[in-house]
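Whether sequence alone determines local backbone shape is best considered at the level of individual chains. When preparing material for the folding task, we compiled for one chain both its residues and its backbone structure tokens. The sequence in question and its structure tokens are set out directly beneath this paragraph.
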Amino acid sequence: MYILSVIVVIVSVFLLASAGEVGVFGIFHFFDIVSMLIVIIIFISMMVASGLLKDFNNAFRLTIGKKNAKSILELKRAKEAVKFAGKLFIMSGFLGTLMGIIMVGYSCSTIKSIMINMSVALLTMFYGLVLYILLLPIQLRIEIKISEFMQI
């Protein structure tokens, strides 16, 4: 059910993007490999540095897969990993946007080039927020599993 919800959110965003003046081709304005890489590289490096990457992976197995938690500690670590991942997505998006805005100030001379580069700079924030939104149901499911585990 979670996968279906993610697909519906992605399709909805793309439909909204294609509703503009440029039509279906407006979707391509939402793709920028460098912006995606900024968010992903910061996220992975900080998850590894914090030692929570395994717990983050475990959170998906506990909520989407068929794996059952062995202890309350495992669930709490998964919850903390997902909370930290959400903060990282937002902060990496914000950092990428700031980097893009700084680069716009140095390299752009016309209004048109400023507007185009500002829209690209804002994509990292967009990616970070979308990824954070996709983590919210996982965080809620883990909290529910913790409550259920404590009642047993």
Observations:
- The two ends are 25 Å apart (CA to CA).
